[in-house]
């Protein structure tokens, strides 16, 4: 059974991510865990010096969360009455990162799906602050859905890679099964002016191909020095429906997340973005 965690702040963006998750896994027997972490809702109140008021506010926020989760449950069942899908709702008093990681480990989640932005929607940013934290620190694959994205089957998938990162078999299996459901093509994009691969790179390429046998694999190269530009150009030219990247040391995504924000270097992502964390679990 596919186990999918969807954190929500009850925004339209969060619900749109839930709808996308139902569509992308519509052919699989799946359990969706819809979770709201409400510690920020409590501590954002001006009551930090009064313990009794804090407990009252915690209970109020819990009850409000439970009501809103119940409403989401009714809405999503109406939107996607799929007999292969089951749902659980969870109200958690804690931070988004801590509660998400705890649930990922406790239930051995396959993937976390969330919107790129939440309630505090800044149109000048690709990712909201909470989403960016999840991309960096959550110990499972994360699928981020852009604001107002209308579902489209991921027929064309872009996977930029330098073939230096040893990918995890479990994560490639997830991608393999997603793409198999839609008979997708996966474009492996190597961005480097030196097009000749080392023996290690050749072996890693072969491992990726063997792990993604259910998909049509297309290899491509780009001599563009600006990785973000190479990726965005490829997305436009090939009408890509989903971007897949690995977050680990020496990866393209690490360059983007740590040397500069994605927004500052121009990678304004308007398609679903699947991030592999490359962690053993």
List keywords for this structure.
281 residues; alpha/beta; 9 helices; 41% helix
Strand order of the largest sheet: 3-2-1-4-5-10-9-6-7-8
User: So how many helices?
Assistant: 9
Order of helices and strands: EHEHHEHEHEEHEHEHEHE
Poorly predicted regions: 259-266
Question: Which percent range describes the beta-strand content?
Answer: 15-25%
Overall spatial form:
elongated
Oligomer designation: single chain
**What's the number of extended β-strand segments?**
10
Q: What value does the Rg take, in angstroms?
A: 19 Å
Helix content: 40-55%
Distance between the termini: 17 Å
What is the arithmetic mean of pLDDT? 86
Structural class: alpha/beta
Largest sheet: 10 strands, mixed
Give an overview in words:
The protein is α/β, with parallel strands linked by helices. Helices cover 41% and strands 21% of the residues. The chain is built from nine helices and ten strands. It has helices at 12-24, 39-43, 51-79, 96-107, 129-137, 169-182, 199-211, 227-237, 252-259; strands at 2-7, 30-37, 85-92, 111-115, 142-145, 156-160, 185-191, 216-222, 242-246, 273-276. The chain has a ten-stranded mixed sheet, sandwiched between helices. α4 packs parallel to α5. It is elongated and about 65 Å long.
């Amino acid at each position: 059974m596919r186990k999918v965690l969807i954190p929500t702040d009850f925004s339209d963006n969060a619900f749109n991510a839930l709808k996308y998750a139902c569509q992308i896994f519509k052919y699989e027997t799946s359990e969706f865990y819809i979770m709201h972490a409400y510690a920020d809702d409590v501590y954002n109140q001006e009551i930090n010096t009064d313990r009794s008021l804090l407990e009252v506010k915690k209970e109020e926020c819990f009850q409000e969360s439970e009501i809103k989760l119940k409403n989401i449950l009714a809405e999503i069942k109406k939107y996607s009455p799929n007999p292969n899908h089951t749902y659980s709702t969870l109200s958690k008093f804690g931070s988004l990162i801590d509660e998400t990681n705890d649930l990922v480990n406790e239930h051995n989640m396959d993937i976390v799906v969330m919107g790129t932005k939440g309630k505090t929607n800044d149109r000048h940013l690709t990712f909201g602050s909470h989403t960016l934290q999840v991309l960096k620190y959550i110990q499972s694959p994360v699928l981020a859905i852009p604001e107002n994205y209308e579902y489209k089957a991921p027929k064309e998938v872009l996977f930029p890679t330098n073939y230096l990162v040893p990918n995890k078999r479990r994560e490639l299996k997830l991608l393999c099964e997603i793409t198999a459901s839609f008979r997708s093509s996966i474009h492996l994009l190597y961005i480097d002016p030196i097009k000749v691969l080392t023996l290690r790179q050749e072996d890693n390429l072969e491992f990726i191909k063997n792990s993604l046998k259910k998909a049509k694999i297309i290899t491509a190269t780009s001599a563009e020095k600006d990785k973000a530009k190479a990726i965005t150009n490829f997305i436009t030219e090939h009408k890509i429906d989903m971007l897949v990247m690995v977050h680990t040391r020496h990866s393209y995504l690490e360059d983007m997340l740590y040397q500069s924000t994605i927004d500052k270097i121009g990678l304004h992502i308007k398609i679903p973005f699947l991030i592999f964390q490359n962690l053993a679990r």
